[in-house]
Amino acid sequence: MMLLAGCGGETSLPSLSGIKGTDITNAKDFGRDGIAGGRRLALNDHNGRSVTLDTFKGKLVVLFFGYTHCPDVCPTTLSDMAEALKLLRPEEAAKVQILFVTVDPKRDTPEILQAYVPYFHPGFLGLHGSTEQVEQVAKEFKIVYRKQVEAGASDYLIDHSAGSYVLDRQSRLRLYLPYATSPVDIANDLQVLLKAA
User: Fold this and answer.
1) Contact (CB, 8 A) for 146 and 157
2) Rounded distance, CA 33 to CA 13, Å?
3) Domains by residue range for the chain, with CATH
4) Strand pairing report for 96-102 and 125-128
5) How far does Cα 147 stand from its chain's mean position?
């Protein structure tokens, strides 16, 4: 197998086989913050710790953007991720970190995230930041979100991208999992990536 050097000194990775999601291994411009072409994901977790993607090097990272008041997509996705981890052997599951990035920093305080995200699995982390920080991270990963206020309503919903990204243990973007990917397929893809890394 030959690895080819790409622009900017990056090395192209071989495509993944046997996956159910979408292989985005060599996709350009995803997960880039524009600063020397690197990925940062500079936010705080729900325990108050500053984190970047480097914080999780050595683990697969599943990155999902949503909000705690979401009526359907977010709780379904987090439940599916929790079920997928149960399908892995314990030593495999220990090498996976699920990150839930809020797109509603106004309502999703660290306390709310700390109560909500670990409800699905104690190892899951909720990430938050200022409105500007969340906008920057969403831009890095090409996430779209928009507040929706119904006439006469006292509350609001947020329309948002619904898929998840999976980064390998070296923080390289490898997979896109569309909304409603089954826990069995998620577990399959995580195992493929664990073996590939």
Assistant:
1) no
2) 21
3) 13-33+53-196 (3.40.30.10)
4) parallel
5) 20
d(CA 64, CA 196): 22
Residue pair 177/60 in contact by the 8 Å Cβ criterion: no
Assigned token pair, 76:
């379904």
**In this predicted structure, what is the pLDDT of residue 1?**
35
- CA dist 4 and 25 (Å) reads 13
Phi/psi of residue 193, nearest 5 degrees = -70, -35
What does the alpha-carbon distance between residue 175 and residue 127 come to, in Å, rounded to a whole number? 20
Q: pLDDT per residue over 125-145, tens digit each?
A: 999 999 999 999 999 889 999
Q: Tell me the three-class secondary structure of the chain, residue by residue.
A: CCCCECHHHCECCCCCCCCCCEECCCCCCCCCCCCCCCCCCCEEECCCCEECHHHHCCCEEEEEEECCCCCCHHHHHHHHHHHHHHHCCHHHHCCEEEEEEECCCCCCCHHHHHHHHHHHCCCCEEEECCHHHHHHHHHHCCCCEEEECCCCCCCCEEEECCCEEEECCCCCEEEEECCCCCHHHHHHHHHHHHHHC
pTM: 0.89
Scanning the structure block, which residue is given the tokens 């500079």?
42
The whole-number pLDDT of residue 9 equals 43
